[in-house]
Each structure stands twice: as C-alpha cells, then as structure tokens.
C-alpha cells in the first residue's frame, strides 16, 4: 500500500534534509567559534615571528594581542556582511541553492587558512576568518528560513530549532578537534583552521538531492507543481492539503507585492512590533554574553580559579551543556511554546549571572567558591541553550510574511553579528576592568529582554503564519481600525491544486 509508507519516507527525507543543510550551515558557526581557543598561543607566536622575519621588529605583548583581537573579531564583521547579502541571495537563487553557493566562501577560507603558515602570512589568517564569517553569516540567516518554510506547521518550531542544536554540536566538535592531542597542537593549528571545509564538502555532496522550500517555489517562483512535489517529499501526502492551503493563503495575501528591503521594513507601520521584536531578541542573543565564553573561555575559567592545564577539557563541558540544552528545548518547544522558553531562558540567565558575580566576589574568602563559579558558567550556558539559542532564529520566519522575511533576516542577522563583534571586542576589557563584576552588564541585558518578551511578544506555537500576522496587526494598530500598510486581506480558493493521497 503506497500511502502507508509515504509519511515515514517523508519524515526520513525531512530529517536528512535538516542534517544535510545544517552540517554545512549553522554547525559551521559553532565550530568556527570554538576552534579559535586552542591555537591562541601558537598563532600569537606566529604573528610575532612573522614581524621579526619581515621587518626585524619584536612586537610588544599588547601589539600581539591587538592583532589577535583583529583575527578573532574579523569573523563577526564577515558574519555581518554575510547577513546583509543573504537576503538578496535567497531571493535570486532560492534557499537551497543559496546554501550550496555559500560554500564558495568556506572553501576559499579553508585554502587561505591551510596556506598561511607556509606563506608566512598572518594576513591570510585574517582573510580566512573574514571569509568564513561571511559563510557563517549567510547560513545563520538562510538555514532557519529554509527549515521554517519547509517544515509542517506542527513541527515548525522543532525543525527550526534544530539550527541551534547543530550550532551547539559545532561548538562541541570544534572543542574536541581543537584538543592538543588532535589538531590543537603547535604543528597542526593551520589544519585546524582549515578543517571547516570537511562539513562543507559533505553538504555539497548531499544537499542537491533534497527539494527547495515549498513556500519559495509557490510564492516566489509561482511553480505550483514543484511546490506539491516538495511537499510530498518533505511532509507526506497526509498533511499536504492543509499545508498547501496555508501556503496558498500567504500567496494570496502577498500577491502583487515585491520582496521588501530592510529600509522599507523600518518605515512600514504594519511590521513595527515584529521589527522591534527581532531587533531586541537578536541583539540580546549576543549581548547576553554567552558567546564571550567561547571566544575567551580561558579568561573566564582563569577568573573562576580553574588550573591552566585543565581549561581545554573544561571548555568541552561548556559546549556539551549548550548541546544538551538545545536538544531539550527542541523536545519542549512545541509543548511549552516560544514565549515561555525564551522568557524562561533569559530569567534563568539573570539569576545565574548574579550568583556568578557573588561567587567571584567571595573567591578569596571561601575555598569552594571557584567550584560554584564554574557551576554558574555551565548553568548559564544551559539556560541560554534552553531558550535564546534556538527560539531567536525561529521568530523572523514566523512573524514576517514571504515578501518581508529575507529583509527581516538581514536585519536580525546584522544585529546579531554587530553585537557579537562589539561583545567580542569589549569583553576582555570588561574582565580586566570590572573583574568580579564582569557579568553584571549581561545580567541587566537578560532581565530587560525577559521583561520585553513577557510583556510584548505574542505566542506563535501551532499557529499559521497568517494567524500570527493578524495578532501583530492588532499590536501595530492598537486602538485603531487601520488597515495593514500595503497588504489587504485577499480571497483565496482552498485546495486549488489537485491533491492525491498516494505517492
């Protein structure tokens, strides 16, 4: 009986598509964050040796640190550029093809990284990190969009959240590969920086076998037959009718509208609260300080009293915590909802940041306080993984329609990468300047973010994209009978396409 096997086949296709897209997508973001911790000392030595060979100049410690900070932070600027070009790329090439083309940046970056040592050029490391940042910036925007548009409504949150699961897995993988016993040694650091090419190659081989986003095919390309085929492969025939009707409704509501630019979103009242929501949540995702632990893990654990020779093993635990928390969040999000997980994560982070600050203040007086400090770091990361890490990436897909979605991801991604750059630059100075109070600013950010989510962000769990849009319409025109900016409620014919219950 053909139809009985269809749902299982569709589920397997959806799972494999998620794995293929993510392994060369958001996994790269986590991986490339984590691999920079292990070779810090070796690359700093390489920078000094290069200056000595070229110009017979012995750099001061602060000068070496400055060049190293540029190498670390240029990744964020590349991510910002990637976020800005992701929107136009998805409109022109589609979600899947955009992810495939994105590997051009990744492979070029790997080539620069692996050649840098032989070429005696630290500039090649900077270029490599910039290019891999562009790749990560594109994938962090495109992948959640691809997943959100391809998954059935009842699984949209869980499938979209898998982006965060793979990001956390990338962090763990990068920490393990970066161990001195593997590629984190003085002889192998250039291969460690270039090892991100392997997941990219896996994606290039596997992703072409999977379909494009059904919403993109129907709404952007107007190809109903291709949309139906994609739905059959990804979701199975049993859910095809209601899912197609949802896409048809969104197509009717956006009929005649061109893809919007970020500037148009800023000037359109009909998306005011949606825009405020993604700006706040995307900024908070970085300003909460979680990724600072990965950029400067050694600084944080040194302040916590962990012996220097144990730090590389302790940092693996941080990645494992976030990975575990993201999996738990993936299981809970369709039960508890986006709002609950996001607000709960920020509240817990606020609490643990306060406890961490108290523990650091009392380290000189109570012998077991360093262990409490270390525990707070792990619980802080767990709290981040339970909410902000995954839910933030889902929101632009759910609260914006097809014409605004690429621009919304451009804005969200830009805010995320810009704030990551700022946090990465100022965190060492926070540690040295505020010492035990270095996490107080992050606690304030988390508390304010939790208040915003609790007071203003509507729940989106289990709702169609059109229903979510109507909820925000009430917020945007509160107390008025105004109509949605340039959109009108359109009539559409359900079940317009011929549907079949068999493959």
TrEMBL record:
Subcellular location: Membrane
Presence of the UniProt keyword Chaperone in the record: no
Main location (coarse class): membrane
Domain Major facilitator superfamily (MFS) profile residues, every copy: 18-461
Gene Ontology annotations of biological process type: D-glucose import; dehydroascorbic acid transport
CC annotations in GO: plasma membrane
Residues covered by region (Disordered): 479-503
Listed PROSITE patterns: MFS, SUGAR_TRANSPORT_2
Membrane-related topology note: Multi-pass membrane protein
One GO MF term attached to the UniProt entry: D-glucose transmembrane transporter activity
Keywords in alphabetical order: Membrane, Transmembrane, Transmembrane helix, Transport
Pfam families named in the record: Sugar_tr (PF00083)
UniProt record similarity statement: Belongs to the major facilitator superfamily. Sugar transporter (TC 2.A.1.1) family.
Annotated PANTHER family: SOLUTE CARRIER FAMILY 2 (PTHR23503), SOLUTE CARRIER FAMILY 2, FACILITATED GLUCOSE TRANSPORTER MEMBER 11 (PTHR23503:SF22)
Protein name: Solute carrier family 2 member 11
């Amino acid at each position: 009986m053909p139809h009985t096997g269809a749902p299982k086949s569709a589920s397997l296709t959806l799972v494999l598509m998620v794995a293929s897209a993510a392994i060369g997508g958001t996994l790269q973001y986590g991986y490339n964050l984590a691999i920079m911790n292990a070779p810090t000392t070796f690359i700093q030595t390489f920078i000094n040796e290069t200056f000595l060979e070229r110009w017979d100049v012995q750099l001061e410690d602060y000068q070496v640190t400055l060049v190293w900070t540029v190498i670390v932070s240029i990744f964020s600027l590349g991510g910002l550029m990637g976020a800005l070009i992701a929107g136009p790329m998805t409109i022109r090439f589609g979600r899947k093809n955009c992810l495939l083309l994105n590997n051009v940046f990744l492979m070029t970056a790997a080539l620069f990284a692996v050649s840098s040592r032989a070429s005696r050029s630290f500039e090649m490391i900077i270029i490599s990190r910039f290019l891999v940042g562009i790749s990560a910036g594109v994938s962090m925007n495109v992948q959640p969009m691809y997943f959100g548009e391809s998954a059935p409504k009842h699984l949209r949150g869980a499938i979209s959240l898998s982006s965060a699961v793979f990001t956390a897995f990338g962090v763990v993988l990068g920490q393990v590969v970066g161990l001195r016993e593997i590629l984190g040694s003085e002889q192998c650091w250039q291969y460690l920086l270039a090892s991100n090419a392997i997941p990219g190659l896996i994606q290039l081989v596997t992703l072409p076998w999977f379909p494009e986003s059904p919403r993109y095919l129907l709404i952007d390309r107007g190809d109903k037959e291709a949309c139906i085929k994609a739905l059959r492969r990804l979701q199975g025939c049993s859910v095809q009718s209601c899912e197609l009707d949802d896409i048809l409704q969104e197509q009717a509501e956006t009929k005649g509208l061109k893809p919007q630019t970020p500037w148009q979103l800023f000037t359109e009242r009909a998306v005011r609260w949606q825009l405020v929501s993604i700006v706040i949540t995307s900024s908070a995702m970085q300003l909460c300080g979680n990724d600072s632990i990965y950029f400067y893990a050694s600084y944080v654990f040194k302040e916590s009293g962990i012996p220097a020779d144990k730090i590389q093993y302790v940092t693996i635990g941080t990645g494992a915590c976030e990975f575990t928390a993201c999996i738990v969040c993936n299981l809970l999000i369709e039960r508890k909802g986006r709002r609950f997980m996001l607000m709960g994560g920020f509240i817990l982070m606020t609490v643990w940041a306060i406890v961490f600050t108290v523990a650091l203040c009392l380290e000189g007086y109570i012998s077991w306080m360093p262990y409490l400090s270390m525990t707070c770091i792990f619980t802080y990361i767990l709290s981040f993984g339970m909410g902000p890490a995954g839910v933030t990436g889902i929101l632009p897909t759910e609260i914006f329609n097809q014409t605004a979605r690429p621009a919304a991801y451009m804005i969200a991604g830009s805010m995320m990468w810009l704030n990551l750059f700022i946090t990465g630059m100022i965190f060492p100075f926070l540690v040295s300047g505020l010492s035990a109070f270095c996490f107080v600013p992050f606690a304030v950010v988390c508390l304010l973010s939790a208040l915003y989510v609790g007071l203003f962000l509507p729940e989106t769990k289990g709702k169609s994209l059109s229903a979510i849009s109507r909820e925000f319409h009430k917020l945007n025109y509160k107390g008025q009978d105004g109509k949605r900016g340039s959109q009108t409620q359109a009539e559409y014919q359900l079940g317009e396409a011929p549907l079949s219950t068999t493959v």
